[in-house]
Amino acid sequence: MSSPHPTPDSTESDEFLWLEQIHGERALDWVREQNARTEQLLDGPELDALESAMLKALDAPDRIAMVSKRGPLYYNFWRDAEHPRGLWRRTDWESYRAGTPQWEVLLDVDRLAEEEQTPWVFAGAQLLRPDRDRALLRLSPDGGDAVRVREFDLTAREFVPVDQGGFDLPVAKTHVSWLDRDRLLVGTVVDPDPQTGDVTRSSYPRAQRVLRRGEELTAADQVFTVDREHVAAFGHHDSTPGWERTVAVDAVDFHRSVTWLRTDDASAGTGEERPGWRRIEVPEDAEVSFHRQWITVYLKTDAQIRGTDHRAGSLLVAPAQQWLDGTAELNPVSLPDARTVLSSWTWTASHLVLVLLQDVASVLQAVPQGRLTEADAAASARPVPLDPPNPHDPFLTLSAAAVDDEDPDCGDDLWVTATGALTPTTLLRLTLDAAADLPAGPQTAAGSGAVEADVVLRREVVASAPERFDASGLAVTQHWVTSDDGTQVPYFQIGPQDAPLDGRSPVVMDGYGGFQASKLPGYSAIQGLGWLSRRSEDGRTGIWVIANIRGGGEFGPGWHRAALRENRHRAYQDFAAVARDLVARGVTSRERLAATGRSNGGLLMGNMATQYPELFGALSCGVPLLDMRRYTVLSAGHSWIAEYGDPDVPEDWAFIRTFSPYHLLVDRPVAGAQAGRDAEGPSTGYPHQLVWTATSDDRVGPVQARKYAARLQRLGVPQTWFHEDLDGGHAGASDNRQAASMNARSLHFLWRSVAGSGHTL
Q1: Is 203 a known active-site residue?
Q2: Identified catalytic residue from 175, 230, 236, 730
Q3: 484-528 residue pLDDT tens
Q4: What is this structure's pTM?
Q5: β-strand 158-159 against 168-172: which pairing, if any?
Q6: Angle, alpha carbons 419-423-426 (nearest 5°)
Q7: Domain boundaries, the chain
Q8: Which of 2-16, 143-157, 240-254, 619-633 has the lowest mean pLDDT?
Q9: CATH number for the domain running over 17-43+487-754
Q10: Which one-letter DSSP state was computed for residue 402?
Q11: How close are the terminal C-alpha atoms of the chain, in Å?
Q12: 599 is catalytic
């Protein structure tokens, strides 16, 4: 494919480079002006009421307090109206199970933020094993990816002072793991110089260090480094008793990596590559993990490993030491087919539990560990049945996680969460049958025709969230549409069961289509309050649509690869095909059709605006990639070259330019008469657009959103609106109030654009 344009340098015809100064006064003045303009448009009683309702749902005291078991106690992080930045706390099982948990508050983040005059955002904790009396807390000063890591004493419930040897790592994109009580495995940036420092071009650490208590970071030994052109050096120490191991990962790009296992033998490296490290010899695009005695390999492409062919999407398992010694082979325990793919997996004491997607609906299976080395291990998978779903909401999304496979009293217990677009989340605790690990007797042998016993011994509903919006009369249906190249693409429609097919229902489409991330239905008070329970001026109920376009993971690695790099247009063709189908079926019309997307989904929205403006009445474009010529030099953009291509390579820029919205505004000007949408002022044909971001987003960054909105306005598109929050990071929100404000603003904008007969925007 050749480009009609000469390959430019990264500043070609870019009149808004000054907006890339994230904290520059001129740029921030522009942001303030845009915020005031957008707030003047949207602020008022209706938005206030919507935001208040969303915040009430997000802060509701009867939400499920999800917990993680660490030793005998159950840990939870909780935000509510009184604690907007949150409480890190723990409780015992009996009171939690009874629904009256006796919480011990370990850290009040609001109090900490006030004491230290820093708006801290809690980003997770890692407990020291086996004592679990210390933890490493991750705290972000603005909601971004960069965090400060501090050692916390769980007995005293306070940070360990640095002058008493406490670990305290400065704010950076840090990954850290306990090696033992007095040593950490740390990946962080000490020297940010892009040429000589320990940072990659993607803004992540390129070295793993062993940091000893009381030692300065600059003095810590580097034990693992990667090329600065690679994404990052990651590391983790597994402290499972009896299975301790240290693993490091050279993330070559976003989809390729090399995994290394630390050895005691300094000569055990592959050749002279890395003395003291052993390379795991699998394809670079495979995912490798260890659990106790097992190694698992998830394949993203067809591969031959040690002479055996394996299919993409397979999960391969082997006893780790035997496989490393060459005395065991990797064995497939989950094999994909045209409609079924592996979504995730977890381990209990006796089972490997698989979460599968069958036509984008979740199912659970359990494989006894005693069968994992057998030739037909995949055939040994048993269904893990749950209660029959609601007939109006049959497409539940399930997740599974072991409770604590080290605890002999509950080693085969499993957390399962079940949720649907109209089904509030339920938390269940299942106990699997450890005896199912034994070989089957004649009465249950394969092919005997006998009914297999239920692999679940006990099912307990621990908690169920209440309904947050009126879903009476609503239903979830799945539909399929043929994309431009003949591929069948599914989508979910959530709305009135008897909605008239006269093209007048307000519809919002939600999409992503990248990085093998699946877009699955789940219960959302935000969606329900902001769309599904609202009525238009002519009495129509809102309809929400989830488009399962290529680039995602709904049908495995092949579904993702189909929209990589030069094939990125397939994701956009799929989304457009769904939009056309909604109109063709009479569900909605162009004037009543909106769409929303964030991050890579924001890039999707930019391409809908510039390539398919005739299909949509309004778009909400959040924390987006939009300038694909300079995305690799902005924030963490260099890490996504494997997904989109490298604009510095002429052959890549030739296809990247075709899906760079910032450039398509110039390359493909839209005439209002052809596009068929009038707007206040000049008729441009573009849909109404709200472009929003956060100053503190250190992953995508705010500048692409700024530049895109500014160029749209310069081109005379008055129905372009922009809003930028100061903090919130790439998530767009640091607390529930900010989340409510962000979501209410986005959905209110779309609703006003497409749900009113007068199109009040």
Answers
A1: no
A2: 730
A3: 999 999 999 999 999 999 999 999 999 999 999 999 999 999 999
A4: 0.93
A5: unpaired
A6: 50
A7: 17-43+487-754, 285-329, 337-419+425-442+449-464
A8: 2-16
A9: 3.40.50.1820
A10: E
A11: 40
A12: yes
